[in-house]
Amino acid sequence: MTNIQKPNHPVYASTTSGYYPVIMAVFVSLLVISNIGAVKLISVGPLILDGGAFLFPLVYITGDILSEVYGFKAARKAIFVGFAMATLAAVTFWLVQLSPPGGGWDNQEAYEAILGFVPRIVFASVCGFLVGQLLNSYVLVKIKARTNEGSLWVRLIGSTLVGELADTVVFCTIAFYGVITGGDFLNYVIVGYLYKTLLEVVMLPVTYRVIAHVKANEPTYVAAS
Q1: In total, how many domains does the chain have?
Q2: 40 domain-assigned
């Protein structure tokens, strides 16, 4: 078996074929689903989380895969598509809320109590998402420019620390400032940041395997390396 030497420069795959469209679709879907789930606050003992905590960390993991394998421009394209689809979802829910309910449909108040809150949540999410994901991708690619193919864990964790911090602060402030106050708000911000960051660290072995699989099966990545 021939050993392939690691390149001495950053390598990225082309987005014109392979897994890129599928990974982008997963990335965008995870974002939209997380935004809807985030309307509910969840108590876990003394901790306060929102429903987006189940899937949103996977958005960052998928973003890491896009940045690592395809580069900043490709990741930025996926981020902008996610931003557009999340905004479209918010506008759609808002228009449905404003539309007169049909005869015999008595759930308008229930709809407004849940999905009626989505526009604010989505606005908060897309703002935090846009800032956090762009920083996450930028930092990862900048670290890769120095480390090339080595030290993957450094760029995954380093980019997560920066991106998740920006995302969490922006999202929590816009979405829930004034809804939850004082110590509860601070608890929500700190716990949310630590939870998302630690989950990505725990998921590093999985992220490593997925990245390795995508790299090995992207012809343009293998050819470039």
Answers
A1: 1
A2: no
